[in-house]
Amino acid sequence: MSIENAQQFLKDVLHHPDLRETFNETQTPQQFLKLAQGLGYDFSSQDLETVISRHSEGVNIRRRTGIWQWLRTVPWIDRQEAHH
């Protein structure tokens, strides 16, 4: 699992809407990560959260389209695990 893989994943989904659509049917963080791994990305939800936080520094307003909107709709992080 790595930050680098999470960074590459975000770049890829940013530039390829069809790749984003692949994840639309996932219902749980585990399904999301398993699908990502099946596509050759090896990262944890914590890795992805770290990368997103880094890219979000200093951003006050996020567009309601593209990758930011998509990230709000997919179960990429296990919220229960994050609160422990």
What does this structure look like?
This protein has 84 residues and is mostly helical. The protein has one domain (3-82). 63% of the residues lie in helices and 0% in strands. It has helices at 3-15, 17-22, 29-38, 45-56, 66-73, 79-82. The mean pLDDT is 82.
Count of helical regions: 6
Overall domain count = 1
Beta-strand residue fraction: under 5%
Name the structural class.
mainly alpha
Radius of gyration from the CA trace?
A: 12 Å
Mean pLDDT: 82
First-last Cα distance: 20 Å
Q: Largest sheet, if any?
A: none
Order of helices and strands: HHHHHH
Task: Name the poorly predicted regions.
Answer: none
The rough form would be described as globular
What portion of residues is helical? 55-70%
Q: Give a count of the beta strands, DSSP E runs of length 2 or more.
A: 0
